[in-house]
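JOB MANIFEST
job_type = single_chain_structure
chain_count = 1
residues = 270
[input]
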Amino acid sequence: MIDSARHSNKRPFIGGTIRSFKSILLGEGVWKGLYRGVTPNMAGATFSWGFYFGWYSLIKKYMEKDQSGKLSAIQHLTASAEAGALTAFMANPLWVVKTRMCTTTQHTPDAYTGLLNGLKRLYVEEGIRGLYRGMVPALFGVSHGAIQFMVYEEMKKKRNEVRHKKGLNSMNELNAQLSQTEYLTMAAISKVTATVITYPYQVLKSRLQNRATRDTYKGVIDCSKKMIQTEGYMGFYKGLAPNIIRVLPGTCVTFLVYENLTQYFKQHAS
């Protein structure tokens, strides 16, 4: 997301990730540059994943009460969307601070120094409205998690159907864990698919949350129009490569841990 805030439309679209990496490394160093904003990012990710999986499981259980079998793709999509909307509302302040730290340097005048400093100043200086800047595109972004979980759940279902056709007729065998490699592969494919489809909303959210450009745009529609006029439609995909590189490892590990813990608790439930 750094590219979307720090580079103008005059910069070539290709190669921006490498140029930004070199510029930050040389100008700000490793920890204070490349790892700026890591604390709010970790807090936001932990908070979001925890609540997301919690809401998602509860909503699925509620839906399954009226279902004799597995949920359909549409039901997985709906459950993911509802969980995403609730999580987005609860975690938005953390992502505002993270965005503002990532779009400034330690030398930027009046820049946030950390998570707590950012949350305190955000509320004092801008009130509730500041805490929920970018909330509209964040709600649009609910589609990201919905698509990701729908693709993931459907891939799991298809894989189990293939195993069933190969002779795993026992329900215990059918419900057994897939391999770690299969979980990682499905997590990666579902994440990349959702990211490519929904990435423009992340750029819009970043522009609206960025402190340097908060007064430039009047809202989502105004921001979209100005981006198209000055940067073209490719402007909505600035920073796509570093974003995928950044989130993919964490997503794969998260899904792997989630699946293994789910199986563990099912097997050891009293």
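[summary]
The longest helix spans residues 73-102.
Residues 97 and 108 are 15 Å apart (CA to CA).
exit_status = 0
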